[in-house]
Amino acid sequence: MNTLLMIATRNLAQHKRRTMLLGSAVAMVTTLLVILLSLFSGMRTTMLRTATTLMTGHVNVAGFYKITTGTAAPLVTKYQGLTELVKKSTPGLKAVVTRGRGWGKVVSESSSIQAALSGLNIDSEPLFRDVVEVSKGSLDGLRDPHTVLLFEQQAERLQVKVGDNVTLSSSTFRGANNTVDLRVVAIAKDLGFMSGFNVYVHADSIRELYELDPNTTGAIQVMIKDANEAENVANTLRKAIEDAGYRMMDRVPQPFWRKFESVRREDWTGQKIDITTWSDEMAFMRYTLDTVQVLTIVVVSVLVVIIIVGVMNTLWMAIRERTKEIGTLRAIGMQRGYVLRMFVTEMAVLAFSSTAIGALLAAALCWMVNAAHIVVPKAFQVFLMSQTLQLAPDFGIAIRSLLTIAIVTTLGALFPAYRATKLQPVTAMHAGN
Amino acid sequence: MNSENLKTSAASAIVQLSHVDKEYQLGKVTVPALHDVSISIQAGEFTVIAGPSGSGKTTLLNLIGCVDVATRGQVIIDGRNTLELKEKELTRLRLDRLGFIFQSFNLVGVLDAFQNVEFPLLLQKTLGKKEREARVQALMESVGIAQYAHHRPGELSGGQRQRVAIARALVTKPRIVLADEPTANLDSVTGTAILDLMQELNRQGTTFLFSTHDPRVVARAGRVIRLFDGRIEQAGTESARADEASAHAAPQAGGQP
């Protein structure tokens, strides 16, 4: 065994109480860091998965159709050809779905709500079933035209249950009012604010409401394997679609509903394609994630400072206790660099063993939290877009946390260790005499 | 010692100090510890630095041991002027040419006896594992502690610890061994045994330099350098050794009922 390592481990073993205290503190901070990062990762994963599946996809291929220069309908005509092109041109493709889009009133016998309307073909939605948890009825019911899925909160406000009828009412893009009668086939568990204003109907019901032909849809939503690649994929698709002869809208990183006014003022007619990412369509979510990330950084910084102060204090004590030993070792010929390495090795051994224990503990706690399906308060559900707390620890998080805390702990030892090397052998040898 | 004698002996001296002063600064107060000390020690000597507490024995030993630096004067150890050496070179000089034996043994508590003795060789990095272990084993046998090789210092008696310290001091085959009050913390039987051992090692060629006021050590010295208030009072005479021995023996005898 390496002599430095042996001295380090034996010194740690000899000062059991101090080692236990500092080791526990380092392990706890690591546990806290892993849990914090897992929470952030879990929130990000949950929010992204829910929001992109329900509303936007990672990349949104949509656009506007202008019958006259003064109008603006958020539609994609002859979408089948464009969908095939998107499928062929998307790197890292996971799934492509088409959705009808609109805004209208859902009216029951006793109440009504305003809602964003999404028209879908349930059999072409592989991810939808993973995100939406039906509490009553069945998603299979959405295979039939004139059907609707509501969330629990909506169903409660409308005072309807599975099998009841509601009426969808909206203005067509030509300006006429239209209605469609729908049967409630499924009621799903709430998913935060997403479930507050979204209802899902059969795709043909949207076409019927807005008097659209079967070759028209609202948007082609692209799900990719790595959400972080959304911007790159959007650029790739923009080029591919433009090269295929489609007219493109200028890149404006905003959701489609904020573009109505500007598009109405533009002097063109016909179809133009607009490509956005989930982050353009849901800027609020990006802000939320950024805020959580900033908070995480602040908390991590505080933890790092605590660790550094703790380590430095402990090492000052250790060096004071071992001043005579340092003097002796220097007298018998130990170079300053070796003294430095001796103390840093000691702290590194403590740091890596404690952080490993801390990371394992955190992994176990995360597993228990996930297994317990802890229901979070309603206010938290709104942002989390999930009813339960989900922690997403992974090997990368554990290793990153472990290395961060271990390196910080070891670095915290550097200054006291450096001061120890500066002790004159004669001073150190006679310390305590 | 006059300057003529100093010049004569300088050529073969292993330790040579010329007009050395050492002062300590305590705040604004300058405390003189050594004044105009000139000595020359030849290889193979068994020399004692004697004197009352506060006379500068340990300071002189520290200067010779290169763990402290003189305020003025010249300190030459094994032909190297220590004032001209950098910190790293001084440390290497201590490792390769000097051996230290301390009053409180100063062993590394977390290492066992064998590892304590082996440690300077690990710092030297000149011997392979087998050669290193063989040398340590032989040395431990010669100082009579081979059976305690895997005991930690806390599990050894004072005499056994001092034997480990002696083995540690000798393991690098130093040119000179410096011992600061090596018998002060030992009972008389153990102290005598340790001195016997050191004398035997001296006969085999190792130079010993002691700082002590133990009359048993003084009585065995080939040469006594007596310090008083930081100055050399007498050096190198048989009468000095006898005076030193009697000076310590008398009060002790007088103290008996």
Descriptive report:
The complex is a heterodimer of chains A (about 425) and B (about 260). Chain A has about 425 residues and is an alpha+beta fold. Chain A has two domains: about 5-50 and about 285-430, no CATH class; about 55-280, no CATH class. Helix content of chain A is about 55%, strand content about 20%. Chain A contains 16 helices and twelve strands. Chain A has a six-stranded mixed beta barrel with strand order 3-4-9-6-8-7. Chain A has a two-stranded antiparallel ribbon with strand order 2-10. In chain A, a hairpin with a 4-residue loop joins strand 3 and strand 4. In chain A, helix 2 (about 15-55) packs antiparallel against helix 11 and helix 11 runs parallel beside helix 15. In chain A, about 45% of the residues are buried. Chain B has about 260 residues and is of the alpha/beta class. In chain B, about 45% of the residues are buried. Helices cover about 40% and strands about 25% of the residues of chain B. Chain B has a single domain, classed as P-loop containing nucleotide triphosphate hydrolases (Rossmann fold), CATH 3.40.50.300. Chain B has a six-stranded mixed β-sheet, with helices on both faces. In chain B, strands 2-1-4-5 form a four-stranded antiparallel β-sheet. In chain B, strand 7 (about 175-180), helix 7 and strand 8 (about 205-210) form a beta-alpha-beta unit. The termini of chain B are far apart. The interface of A and B includes residues 7, 14, 329, 331 and 424 of A.
Per the CATH scheme, the topology name of chain B is: Rossmann fold
CATH class descriptor of chain B: Alpha Beta
Number of domains of chain B: 1
What value does the Rg of chain A take, in angstroms?
30 Å
**Structural class assignment of chain A:** alpha+beta
Q: What letter string, H or E per element, gives the SSE order of chain A?
A: HHEEHEEHEEHEEHEHEEHHEHHHHHHH
Shape of chain A: elongated
Biggest sheet character of chain A: 6 strands, mixed, barrel
